[in-house]
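Section 3.1 - Work completed
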Amino acid sequence: MYDLSTRKRALALIAQGRSTSSVSREMGISRSAIRAWQRRVEPLPRMTSPEPGPPADPAAYAYLLGLYLGDGCLSPHPRGGYHLRIACADAWPGLRRHCVEAISQVRPGVRVTILQKQGCVMVTSYHRHWPQLFPQHGPGKKHERTIELAGWQRAIVDAHPWEFVRGLLHSDGCRLTNWTTRVVQGERRRYEYPRYFFTNVSGDIRRLYTDTLDRLGVAWRQANAQNVSVARKADVALLDAHVGPKH
C-alpha cells in the first residue's frame, strides 16, 4: 500500500507529461499500481498545482512564442491540462528539430511527441500550465480575437527580439528570390534579388512582427493586406545573419 502523498506525487508527474515507465523507475512503484490510480473512479483529494513560473530559457521562449503565434494552438486534455501543438511542414526538418528543442528548453522535462499528418507533423507537448505561458489562447481563431503580449512576454521579446522574429518567420514566413529586368547598355537583363515575406491573417500578429522589426532597425513595407516584405539589401542581410532560410 502507498500513502496518499506518494500517489499524489506519482499522478502529478504523469500530469506533467511523464511516461508511466519513467515515473515507475524514479519512484520505485509498479506500473500497474500507477495505472490503477489513473483509472480510479472515485476522485482523489484535489491536488493543488504550483504556478508555472517563468520560462526556463527566455530566448527559447521568444522563439517558441513566434512559432505559437504563427502555427500553434492549445487544446484541452480530457483529464485536465493542455496540449501545445505546433505544425511544422515536412519540407523543413530543421524547423521541427528547432521546435522540439525550444519546447524542451522552455519547460525541461516535459514530454514532446511527433504526430505525422499529411504534409506536416504536429509537434505536441502536454503541460498543465501552457495557457499561463501562452495567455493569447482563447476561443475561436487567432485572427478573430485581439492578440496582445502580456507585460512579462513583452519584456522577454524586448530582451530577445531576433529570436521572436525568427520564430514568426519560421512559422509564417519565407525567404525567396524575386526577379525583374533592367536595360543595361541597351540590353534587357534579368536581375534577381532575395527578400523575406511574412504572411498572417491577424493584423495584431503582423503588428507584433513589424513593431519588432522597427526596434531592430529593419525596414519593411506592407506588400498587400496580409503580407509584410523586407527587400532592401542591407535589411535582407540582417535577416540572413539572424534568421536565415528555413531548412
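Second construct:
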Amino acid sequence: MYDIATRMHALNLLADGRSMNSVSKETGISRAALRAWKSRVEPLPRLLASALPCAAPTDSASYAYLLGLYLGDGCISPHPRGGHHLRIACADAWPGLIELCRSAIKAVRPDDKVYLLQKQGCVAVTSYGRHWTCMFPQHGPGKKHERRIVLDGWQQEIVDAHPWEFVRGLIHSDGCRITNWTVRNGKRYEYPRYFFTNKSDDIRKLCTDTLTALGVEWTILARGSDPFNVSVARKASVALMDAHIGPKY
C-alpha cells in the first residue's frame, strides 16, 4: 500500500524522463504498479478500506530510545513488494545493546517481526513493516548529515516525556563512556567522560538541547576543524549520566 506522495514522487521521476526500470530499482515499486498509476494514481477504495492506519508507538519510552538509536545508526529501506525494512547497526562488541534494540523494536511495533542479520563486525537488528517511514519521518534519500533532521511535534512530545531514554539511545548508537586521564603536579589523574559523535549539526543539537533540559553540562570538542564531538566531563553531569545511561555492554 503506497500513499499518494510516494505515487506522485515515482510518477514525477518518470515524467523527468527516467526509465521504468530505473525508477522501479530506486523506489522498490514494481513496474506493474508504475504502469497502473499512469492511469489512476489514487488507491482503489477496496485497498483503502483494507489498509491499516499508522498508529502511535505502542510504548513511548521504548520509542524515545529507538529514535535515538535510529538517528545514530539506523536506516530505512524499501521492500520490493511494499513496506520497508528498519535496520539498526549494533557492534558485535555490545551484545546487551543488540538485545535492548531488539526489545525496543518489539515494544514499539509488537506485530512486526524482528530478526538479526550478521554482518562483518556488527549485527543489523532488522524489522519489516508498513509503518516504519511513518514512525521515522526523518527517513529520506542520502545521508542524514546531508539533509535537514527535525522532529515532528508528536516526536518532540515523546522526547520531552522521556528525555533520558532518548539520550540513552543516542549514546548507545554514536556515543561512549571512556576514562580520560591528565597529569597535574606530576601525578596522573583519571576521570570518566561521555562522548556523542555525529556529523549532523541537527542531530547533535537534538542531543545537546535534551542534555541542557536535563541539567547536564556539555561542551563541543572539534575534530580538526569539525565540531563533531559532544563531551560531558563535569563530575556532577557524569554522575547524572551514570545514573541514567551508563556504559554500553
